[in-house]
């Protein structure tokens, strides 16, 4: 069927099904088949005499590729004409004569041989029972070489890409994870010291005098932003609910004590204290952060700094005319009379609308300084100035700013004009992860680790002793709820959920090697059994045995931070067909790369039951294709360019044919 949009002839689904009905054409007997085989053998012999010596690329295992997002870029007219010749020679209309079909096939073979030397000759086309001409299956190397001239990829590039893929197949995990230094430093000896305390627990601890000072510091912060207004109790309107508050007191990993006064938000009344449109706000995600770090590694002239908004929620503003009264908090009784209540002037921590109010003010401030917000990520802000790009990511009150030094300094000044901020200095830690960047002449490396979280596994969980496992899960491990299994008690279930949650955070930021194992653990959090707990402990012991590992971001190439550079995106997908023996669901896995640096990696149970391996592989490919499109939209939303077409690599020929159909 001819597609006017792509100007190509494609094979429709009815033809695909007809390919299964392979019968010899009437009049073609054994003698005819023997003659064709002799002709093919002679043709192959002639071709081999003209071929160059075989390279490593032709000897290696082939990896099938899908030309993805081809509709995003117009292909050159000459390449279209060549492709049409090949396609039309492969699938001729049934009304064409046999003589014309043979000429077209011969012409397509000659054209292909001219475009790529060394490829094997194409076998003659066969006919189905309905009389359709069927195109012989081409090998990956033939397709890649045939398009090399059009896409501008050299033979050396093809060989390098194949070698890289073979290396990843040999050791998938090591491609993304490398050994890095733990670098744990701070004012604690055991991670249990970092747990959040309430007011009573803090005052009963050995550090109660220090905590009293912090309670006073929090009072000073509230006074600085004029967050509270004292009101006599008899002046409060009748029927008004006076709410209570609580303290969240925590020792940070650097040893600093931090106490925050929080409203008990669950006491708020809908329509009186909040509205449904102001109870949520976005934060950036791990994928966007990794994309930004990859861009930082590509540009030698860029720097990255952290700008922290102090008392962020105290600098927000009510937007719906709410009036919220609270009782005098614990520890502040000495500052107010007994018959006094406090009216909130700002949405403090714990209020349902606190995060939303701060986010709205942040967006208003940033846009007021002529910065733009990305439509792909609402917490990504950027601006082009004199051909240079500067960008910022916001994770609540922690702002990561990247760009050339002069542009970063200006961005900081613009933020500080609207908020009281604290400059944290160069990027060393973000969203609970330790980030080490090393710039060399050969390129830049960024290593992401979570040493404090790894130590918490050792300090807070009673793990069995013995030789640690070499892998995060046993081979073929599928966690199911066994009918005769022993369920964990309330304490054991809490331990299982807490440990799995820690592992889930680690797999997302610093340990992609445990992603598939933790995916299985997370599916059993509702009703865990002893077998599940042992599997979680095994994964923890593996993490502790490899605590120096972390995510490595090492992109290829350099970028000057200006327009005109084309980023490269490609992905790989795979699936485990019907892995779950209870519901027969398959598992999708995939990775997306930006300039060969991993920015997305996932392992997810498919939401539907697939009926074949090809269908499962196709579902996994769709998942990775969505991730690739997200990376594409993040870059293009900032005015950057992406090299097209993007390649999606799959290891199932049926799924590749369906995707290219």
Set down the secondary structure blueprint.
Blueprint: E1 2-3, E2 8-9, H1 13-18, H2 30-50, H3 56-59, E3 64-68, H4 77-90, H5 98-115, E4 126-127, E5 133-134, H6 140-151, H7 155-170, H8 172-176, E6 177-179, H9 199-203, H10 208-224, E7 228-232, E8 242-243, E9 245-251, E10 257-263, H11 286-298, E11 303-309, E12 325-326, E13 340-344, H12 354-368, E14 372-373, E15 380-385, E16 388-395, E17 398-403, H13 405-416, E18 421-426, E19 429-430, E20 433-440, E21 443-449, H14 451-460, H15 490-509, H16 515-522, H17 530-545, E22 549-553, E23 566-567, E24 569-576, E25 587-594, E26 597-605, H18 613-637, E27 641-642, E28 646-650, H19 653-660
Parallel strand pairs: 8-12, 23-27, 24-28
Antiparallel strand pairs: 1-2, 3-28, 4-5, 6-22, 7-13, 9-10, 11-17, 11-18, 12-13, 14-15, 15-16, 16-17, 19-20, 20-21, 21-22, 24-25, 25-26
Main structural class: alpha+beta
Number of strands: 28
Spatial arrangement of strands, main beta sheet: 14-15-16-17-11-18
Q: Assign an overall shape.
A: globular
**Number of continuous helical runs:** 19
Please provide a brief summary of the model.
By secondary structure, the protein is an alpha+beta fold. It contains 19 helices and 28 strands. Among the domains are: 133 residues, no CATH class; 97 residues, Nucleotidyltransferase, domain 5 (2-Layer Sandwich), CATH 3.30.420.10.
